[in-house]
Write a structure and sequence with these properties.
Elements: H1 2-10, E1 16-18, H2 29-36, E2 40-42, E3 56-58, H3 67-74, E4 79-81, H4 82-91, E5 94-99, H5 104-117, E6 123-125, H6 131-134, E7 142-143, E8 149-153, E9 168-171, H7 181-194, E10 199-201, E11 219-220, E12 229-237, E13 240-245, E14 248-252, H8 257-272, H9 277-285, E15 295-300, E16 303-308, H10 313-323, E17 329-335, H11 339-344, H12 346-356, E18 362-365, H13 381-389, E19 394-397, H14 404-408, E20 416-422, H15 428-440
Parallel strand pairs: 1-2, 3-4, 5-8, 5-9, 6-8, 9-10, 11-12, 16-20, 17-18, 17-20, 18-19
Antiparallel strand pairs: 6-7, 12-13, 13-14, 15-16
Helix pairs in contact: 5-8, 5-9, 8-9, 10-12, 12-13
């Protein structure tokens, strides 16, 4: 929502908004950054809705009982879903939509960097802040370019991805997340059909490959595959990776094979629209990353502390795997979010995390973050830990995350990575920074 607000403000619209986390007499960083862009922020009590309001945009998390919605309905002001607005914006540009269960934000950011390097002056609407833009004091998840191209992150979680009619699209992967796999395949099929030209598919992924339209436009990490673009010769040293795409050397300040696949996806799409692999390699050599995606908070002696947005089974497993070449021991902490999503993915979390952990690695969890709304609280993160422990892995439950550091400190011995994972909770950044500040002393 903040990305859409900034983008609309950037193209000359008058924008204001509210959020459940805005409080009377207080101010948070997001609110301050929005107001710096000329976007007025209100408490979520309806006071921001007036007869001067032409349109109210709501996210999928906003219910009819929220004061702004009730007041807009009473005043007969149109109410539009976030996804419908993004679809309208996408139709105004030559849009590249990045879809898939995992990797959308990173791939979108990498593609944006490549288009910038190529001199196309693109725009972007993303789910995460690009560090390069954040360094300018902005939230970093939106940019209005003067060129024809716009990169958007296309979300499948609420099915809204089927609304977009992009010029070109990327399908990264399909894994059980917010919906069952069969439902996701149907959604991504519509995504494919709505794409006007290039539909770039990750042929390394067994479900995604079924939606391939043209192997010459696709990519893979399997050199035997018939894709037009291949990544080979992967090597990781610390938080740096290098590899080749069709023989062209690439080097990134990032970790994990999943980031090689993200870079491969971005470079493949760029090649499909006429940008050379050499240009992509030059752009990604200075790629600065995105907010809370395997973000290195710091290193003290032999301890690395990394903060990551991983929140579904595949992402958590990939994040842990990316840390394993950094140190001989990984101690991962995860805070699940939402009782319904955790219940839906319980067995997948247990399987994916247990499968990736080495004998010396550990997984810790704190209680599920309650995101609000009506739900049945009949599952605990302790159930995930119990299932992982039953598979012979080192698994620990600390209900209150404020007690985590005291419990985990004796385990931080020798060279190791402390990986902190979680999403949706706006307090996670402060929590992770606090952990690092304590450990660095």
């Amino acid at each position: 929502m903040s990305a859409l607000a900034q983008y609309l403000q950037g193209i000359g619209k008058e924008v204001s908004g509210s959020d459940r986390y805005f409080t009377a007499g207080g101010s948070n960083t997001i609110q301050q950054q929005l107001e710096q862009e000329g976007i007025q922020c209100f408490l979520q009590n309806g006071e921001g809705i007036t007869y001067a309001t032409d349109l109210v945009i709501v996210s999928a998390a906003v219910e009819e009982t929220v004061p702004e919605v009730m007041k807009a309905r009473a005043m007969q002001i149109p109410v539009m879903q976030r996804s419908a607005l993004l679809a309208l914006i996408a139709r105004s540009k030559k849009t590249i939509a990045v879809g898939g269960t995992s990797g959308k934000s990173t791939t979108s950011a990498m593609l944006f960097e490549i288009l910038q390097q190529a001199g196309l002056d693109p725009g972007i609407i993303s789910g995460a802040g690009l560090v390069r833009i954040m360094r300018q004091g902005k939230i970093g998840n939106a940019w209005v370019g003067k060129g024809d191209w716009l990169v958007i992150e296309a979300d499948e979680s609420d099915g809204s991805i089927v609304l977009y009619e992009p010029e070109a699209s990327i399908l990264l992967n399909i894994d059980k997340d917010h919906k069952e796999v069969d439902d996701l395949i149907g959604i991504f099929q519509q995504f494919q059909q709505n794409t006007r030209t290039h539909f770039v598919v990750n042929r390394s992924h067994p479900l995604a490959v079924k939606l391939s339209k043209n192997p010459a436009d696709d990519f893979s990490v399997d050199p035997a595959d018939t894709s037009g673009y291949h990544a080979t010769d992967f090597h990781q040293e610390g938080m740096h990776i290098r590899f080749k795409i069709n023989g062209t050397p690439f080097a990134l300040n990032a970790a994990g094979k999943h980031n090689m696949e993200n870079a491969l996806a971005a470079a493949t799409m760029a090649a499909c629209i006429g940008i050379s692999l050499d240009t992509s390699a030059a752009a990604l050599a200075s790629y600065a990353g995105i907010y809370r995606r395997h973000q290195l908070l710091g290193k003290k002696d032999e301890l690395w502390v990394i903060d990551d947005y991983a929140h579904n089974p595949a992402k958590c497993a990939a994040s842990i795997a990316a840390c394993q070449p950094i140190a001989p021991k990984v101690i991962a902490w995860f805070q699940p979010h939402g009782f319904a999503p955790t219940r839906f993915l319980k067995d997948d979390f247990i399987h994916e995390i247990a499968s990736v952990l080495r004998e010396q690695d550990e997984i810790w969890m704190s209680e599920i973050y309650y995101v609000g709304g009506t739900t049945v609280k009949d599952i605990s993160a302790a159930h995930l830990i119990e299932g992982i422990a039953q598979r012979g892995k080192r698994a620990f439950f600390v209900p209150d995350r404020n007690q985590l550091l005291a419990a985990i400190k004796p385990h931080l011995t020798g060279p190791c990575v402390l990986l902190l994972m979680g999403a949706r909770d706006p307090g996670l950044e402060i929590f992770a920074q606090g952990i690092w500040e304590e450990l660095r002393q």
